[in-house]
Amino acid sequence: MIDLTPRSLHIVAQYEDGEDARHFSFCIDVPQAGDLATRAGQFFMLTVPGLGEAPFTYVSPPDKRGHFNALIRRTGSLTAALFDRVQDPVLGYRGPFGQGWPSLKSARRVLVVAGGCGLAPLAGVIDGAIDHPGAARLCVLYGARHAGAQVLSREREHWRSALPWIETFDVAPVGHRQGSPLAYLDELFGDEPPDTVLCCGPEPFMLATARDCMKRGVADRRIWLSVERRMHCADGLCGHCYVGESYACRDGPTYRYNDYQQLLASASMGPAEQDSGLC
Ligand SMILES: Cc1cc2nc3c(=O)[nH]c(=O)nc-3n(C[C@H](O)[C@H](O)[C@H](O)COP(=O)(O)OP(=O)(O)OC[C@H]3O[C@@H](n4cnc5c(N)ncnc54)[C@H](O)[C@@H]3O)c2cc1C
Ligand code: FES
User: Which end of the chain, C or N, has fewer beta carbons within 10 A?
Assistant: First the structure.
């Protein structure tokens, strides 16, 4: 039977990390074996008592003590309460949920494309490529509206020194790349172009990324997106997160681009009719 009861969770540490965004370290009070079996790109449900639950991705997965990190942006009542509570509140935790990013074993060269807070769900993939370098080489293209809107400042400092890394800004500080990250794709599609693309950001941005990468020869089935839908049960029960015939909570939130297009077409709905944008 599916257990929808949240377990108790505490905030261990927090710091400002981007515009209206905060980096939280949480601790699950009594971690269980299943907590350690998370995959990059999966998510958890956070309960703020009196306000309900919302989904967030892991920046780092729970360790043996139940400690893990998340990047949370203040958007509405639940996140405002989380940011504003002065005393250490007892929160709730359910997870992990979703499929996460694919295995990169068959990839030769991987391009990670992130927009704004969309870098958070990709953190595990980037850490994995640094900690366990395999045959696949990974590079990152990260776009933000301006310098203050960038997130994961501490992680980026480490990542930038370990991997090929390009940052762009809609409004760039002097000496930095200005414009859409997609304007810089050609820098990354040189002699050895990527054969696999993982992308997370606002939905129109992800769809544009997929199209631009396909024009440069990447197969649609090798492009992965992480989509955002409203979630309630997170376990395939309530139907709030439908994408066509699929449940984003159980079958996603990561989808192959070709599968995602088919799901949208089968439901006769364009992305604009659905919720869009990751934080
Ligand atoms: C799989 C998944 C992973 C996520 N990971 C993160 C994360 O790591 N960090 C983070 O900050 N946020 C993440 N989000 C988004 C987060 O769950 C929502 O912003 C959440 O609703 C905030 O709750 P709230 O009560 O503060 O705001 P709400 O009052 O629920 O919403 C505030 C505003 O955001 C809009 N909104 C809320 N949820 C969605 C949605 N799913 N799609 C589009 N618009 C929405 C509302 O319409 C409203 O305008 C994730 C969402 C999903 C589905
Ligand atoms: S959130 Fe309930 S089915 Fe997906």
Answer: N
- Hey, which bits of the chain come out as E strands? 7-16, 21-28, 43-48, 52-57, 67-73, 91-97, 109-115, 137-144, 165-169, 177-178, 196-200, 223-226, 242-243, 246-247, 254-256
Distance CA 100, CA 111 (A): 17
Question: Is 104 a member of any domain?
Answer: no
Mean pLDDT, rounded, for 244-259: 95
User: Cα of 240 to ligand 1 centre, how many Å?
Assistant: 13
Torsion sign (Cα): 237, 225, 41, 58 = negative
Print the domain residue range for 67: 7-97
Number of domains in the chain: 2
Ligand 2 proximity of 234 Cβ (cutoff 6 Å): yes
Which one-letter DSSP state was computed for residue 190? S
Assess whether the C-beta atom of 226 lies below 6 angstroms from ligand 1: no
Q: What is this structure's pTM?
A: 0.92
Ligand 2 atom with the smallest distance to the CA of 230 is 1
What is the spatial distance between Cα 44 and Cα 206, in angstroms, rounded to a whole number? 22
Mapping DSSP onto H, E and C, the string for 212-242 reads HHHHCCCCHHHEEEECCCCCCCCCCCCCCCE
Q: Domain of 33: which CATH number?
A: 2.40.30.10
What is the CATH classification number for the domain harbouring 199?
3.40.50.80
| Mean pLDDT confidence for 162-167 | 93
Residue 203 pLDDT > 70, yes or no?
A: yes
Nearest 5°: CA angle at 213, between 208 and 214? Answer: 100
Residue identified by tokens 């400690």 is 67
Angle at alpha carbon of residue 73, lines to 25 and 50, rounded to 5°: 80
